[in-house]
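step: validate -> pass
step: tokenize input -> pass
step: predict -> running
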Amino acid sequence: MSHDRVVTPAVDDAVTTAPRQLERRGRWWLAVSFLFCPCHLPLTLGLLASVLGGTALGGLLRDHGWVAAIVIATTWVAGTARGLIWIRRAERGELTCAVRPPG
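step: predict -> pass
step: emit ->
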């Protein structure tokens, strides 16, 4: 009795869906980081100031606007870089299933 496993089409599906999942993950990172884009900084800071107004965080934001701007811009750069890395990995086929059908 042989204990060899037969490779099913599910292996082929795993190889083709992994790049799509990586690309989706990269696009999600790009979309979320777009919210922190420095060109939207006046809107972002205004929204944060109105939401956090009257709280300790609102006072901190008012007194340290430049620090908040730097944190928001850094978040944008990091999120955009992460999204582009995931998309490039998907295009190259990295991090996909290493199992190949026999043959």
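step: describe -> Residues 65-92 form the longest helix (28 residues).
step: cleanup -> pass
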